[in-house]
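Can anyone check this?
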Amino acid sequence: MAETNFVDYVKIYCRSGKGGAGSAHLRREKYTPKGGPDGGDGGRGGHIILRGNKNYWTLIHLKFERHIMAGHGGSGSSSRSFGADGEDKIIDVPCGTVVYDADNGEFLCDVTEDGQEVILLKGGRGGLGNWHFKSATNQTPRFAQPGEPAIEKNIILELKVLADVGLVGFPNAGKSTLLSSISAAKPKIANYPFTTLEPNLGIVAYRDGKSFAMADIPGIIEGASEGKGIGLRFLRHIERNAILLFLIPGDTDDVMKEYEILLNELEQYNPELLQKQRILGISKCDMLDEELMDGIRKELPTDVPCVFFSSITGFHLTELKDVIWEELSKDVDRHMTMTHRPMEVGGYDDDEEEFEIDEDDIEMDWDE
């Protein structure tokens, strides 16, 4: 049984309501001979509507509600009475939810703002009553339109976490430790790879009452864009982040090599991720002296802000937050809107509650 309630992928069946049939009624009253046609129109079928809700964090509320159907429109009746419209079905989803067609993987829509409503499936229009069809040559039409049929579709809802800063790094780079040190979030921390199996979100307090959201993403390994490890499943969560904070441990043999591997995996997954603002953080610097940090600093890229820090001792954590806030405050056109590519249908098990890590997929030598 999974230890977490974090659900970021769900497949559901949706059906809008069918339109009500129009009425073919002819008016018959004692003192109104030849009253003529007075059949009313049918009601509209109910829509399937997606609505962004900032109070939702996962899609777990839809995991056990796999069939969502709107109400059918009512039929028209005499005296030009309209049928009742079918009841709309509103599906509340977290902000950052992306919708795909489950049959062909086509991108349908996304919901990014609180209160935003998107009509996913339109209800069928109601049929016209026979009074619409009367004419000089057809004064008593005895027919009416049927309502439009309902629309059925299997859809996939996929959550992409919205945050100001996304942490990117290899397993055991210190991402969860950093998040727990500068926010109130309590992610699981342990000294083995893939401790973090689901994204964690924390609010980091800054000066003068300011704050920003930081997301801890499960570790990425070389080959994650091809499905190795668990990086492929969670790489999508950094697409919605304004800034990417790359974390590389200070005791790494080759800092630039790890940085280039991470950049390559992001490029292979989605080249647009390279257009985001980047910050390079060298973690676990409590084990380094000034001479070693100066040597590492000479190898680092000059076009990316770099910060040496330690989450355990608090070394330069304030400087790290200063750099993050400075980048967030820049008046730049951040690349927040991603081009959603068609999904490869069948990538995940719909009923999967937890996933196993194949040790053969992890091609790194973890020196503990």
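Reply from J.R.: I decoded it. The domain at 163-361 is CATH 3.40.50.300 (Rossmann fold).
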